[in-house]
């Protein structure tokens, strides 16, 4: 089989019917130091709305391009290379799914109207967020596979390209075409009988923008808070798997429509908020997760207001004795969820402790007297 790119085209995202379409917002810049799990194909869900989760709740130009593949294309047991570009802070930091199918996948992409621009002598591939949406821009990653698994059970990668609309030359035959946009993707089985034709892949995807507040009026920014996004088991089980790790606030992450479990972490201790967030096709869902915590500095001193004693080992326990912090230093800083705690300081073979309370947004020092 032969796959040749003839031309590519880009179409920007648009606004329609008062709903924010995210065709120009989701990006494919990869986190070079992380490996993402394979993208799930999530089933559509009932319409949802913006979620506010409280603490403790769950809630290119027009030029032609060279041939990108032929009968001796990429080795089927090699995954397509990940984009190594740095995240674009103005657009987002979600990952392009780069896994190569290991078996012939089901035809999971919804059917849409014919491609908007079919040119004589070429096969048009077009990606949309929804069946009636506009074509996506050039952040779409296309991969074309042979339809028959090899001896190792994997499909042979014949070619790949970027563009919301691309024009390829395909020999007659059957192919599997995969389009990825951010963390959203779709697969379509394509039958090619004539040189001229086209196919639209509908990603059935939307966007998620995550924000965080501490209390009512303290926004938490990048470096203070992070988010882990979990996807449900595509087989229908109760387990979830980590899809995006350490996402930063304010960025748009493109995801297939469905329900995702989001875990917000403020600091490294117990300030954790959870929420279930629904993503609708073609819409941007903005979710604010509200923490109730404060930042504390621990100090072992000989008198109140005195200098912190170095080489101190610290633990902080909840009232039932469960440890939430273990640190060593003169004045470690920790973030703790609102509540009551006991600070225990060990220095020079002696143990000192004090009880203290944490209130939302009330950052302060916790002094333990070495007496």
Q: How does this model look, in words?
A:
Among the domains are: 206-291, Carboxypeptidase-like, regulatory domain (Immunoglobulin-like, Sandwich); 293-369, Carboxypeptidase-like, regulatory domain (Immunoglobulin-like, Sandwich), CATH 2.60.40.1120. The protein is mainly β and 371 residues long. It is built from no helices and 27 strands. A hairpin with a 2-residue loop joins strand 10 and strand 11. Helices cover 0% and strands 46% of the residues. The relative contact order is 0.18. It is elongated and about 90 Å long. It starts with a strand and ends with a strand. It has strands at 3-9, 15-16, 19-20, 52-53, 67-69, 123-128, 141-146, 157-162, 165-170, 173-181, 184-192, 197-202, 205-214, 218-219, 225-232, 240-247, 252-256, 258-266, 272-279, 284-291, 293-301, 313-317, 323-328, 333-337, 339-347, 350-358, 364-369. The strands form 7 sheets. Strands 5-1-9-6-12 form a 5-stranded mixed beta sheet, with no helix packed on it. Residues 9-25 and 27-104 have low confidence and may be disordered.
């Amino acid at each position: 089989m032969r796959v040749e790119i003839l031309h590519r085209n880009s179409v920007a995202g648009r606004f329609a019917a008062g709903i924010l379409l995210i065709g120009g917002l989701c990006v494919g810049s990869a986190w070079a130091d992380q490996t993402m799990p394979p993208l799930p194909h999530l089933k559509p869900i009932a319409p949802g709305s913006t979620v506010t989760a409280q603490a403790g709740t769950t809630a290119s130009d027009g030029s032609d391009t060279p041939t990108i593949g032929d009968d001796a294309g990429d080795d089927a047991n090699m995954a397509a290379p990940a984009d190594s570009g740095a995240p674009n802070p103005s657009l987002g930091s979600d990952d392009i799914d780069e896994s190569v199918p290991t078996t012939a996948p089901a035809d999971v992409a919804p059917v849409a109207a014919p491609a908007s621009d079919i040119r004589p002598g070429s096969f048009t591939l077009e990606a949309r967020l929804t069946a009636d949406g506009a074509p996506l821009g050039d952040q779409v990653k296309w991969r074309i596979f042979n339809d028959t698994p090899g001896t190792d059970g994997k499909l042979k990668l014949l070619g790949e390209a970027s563009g919301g609309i691309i024009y390829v030359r395909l020999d007659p035959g059957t192919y599997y075409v995969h389009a990825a946009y951010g963390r959203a993707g779709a697969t379509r089985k394509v039958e090619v009988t004539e040189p001229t034709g086209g196919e639209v892949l509908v990603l059935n995807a939307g966007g998620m923008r995550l924000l965080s507040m501490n209390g009512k009026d303290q926004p938490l920014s990048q470096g203070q808070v992070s988010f882990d996004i979990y996807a449900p088991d595509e087989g229908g089980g109760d387990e979830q798997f980590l899809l995006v790790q350490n996402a930063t606030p304010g960025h748009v992450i493109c995801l297939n429509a469905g329900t995702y479990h989001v875990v917000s972490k403020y600091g490294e201790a117990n300030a954790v908020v959870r929420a279930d967030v629904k993503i609708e096709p073609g819409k941007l869902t903005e979710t604010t997760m509200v923490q109730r915590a404060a930042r504390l500095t621990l100090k072992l001193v000989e008198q109140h207001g005195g200098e912190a004693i170095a080489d101190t080992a610290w633990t902080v326990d909840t009232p039932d004795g469960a440890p939430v912090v273990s640190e060593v230093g003169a004045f470690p800083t920790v973030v703790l969820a609102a509540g009551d705690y006991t600070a225990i300081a060990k220095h020079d073979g002696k143990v000192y402790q004090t009880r203290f309370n944490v209130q939302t947004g009330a950052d302060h020092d916790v002094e333990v007297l070495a007496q």
